[in-house]
Amino acid sequence: MRSWRRKQAVHTVTDARPSLSTDIRHRERSYLIKMGIRTICLILAVVVPLPWPYKLLFIAGAVFLPYIAVIGANERGKDAPPPTFQTPDANQSEIPLHRREIGS
User: Fold this and answer.
1) Cα–Cα distances in Å, from 6 out to 3, 39, 89?
2) Cβ partners under 8 Å of residue 31, min gap 6
3) Residues 6+ apart with CB under 8 A from 7
4) Is this structure's pTM higher than 0.85?
5) 28-65: per-residue pLDDT in tens?
6) Separation of alpha carbons 59 and 45, rounded Å
7) DSSP 53-83
8) CB 35 within 8 A of CB 66
9) Are 84 and 15 a contacting pair, CB within 8 Å?
10) Which residues contact 44 (CB under 8 A, 6 or more apart)?
11) In contact, 70 and 32? CB cutoff 8 Å
């Protein structure tokens, strides 16, 4: 016997966004790597005797990498795929949560 109900959409686990702790861990690791490269650029620009074009390159890295690191660290959920599910239609017979009263 065929059911006349609409079939409910099935959501797969791959549609889910990464957890907040995983996302934060990824952004922290990326930030620390970029700041480590910045520290190396600063040390190379100051300590190692290099020709001026190389020193300017390392100084530029030490100046601009913090900006790039902060922008990258603040991008939240960039790698996550967009959700593919549709929002279900509202059930008109149900009382919305913000309108419910105690004892009803």
Assistant:
1) 8, 59, 12
2) 69, 70, 72, 73
3) none
4) no
5) 999 999 999 999 999 999 999 989 999 999 999 999 99
6) 6
7) HHHHHHHHHHHHHHHHHHHHHH--STTSPPP
8) yes
9) yes
10) 50, 54, 58
11) no
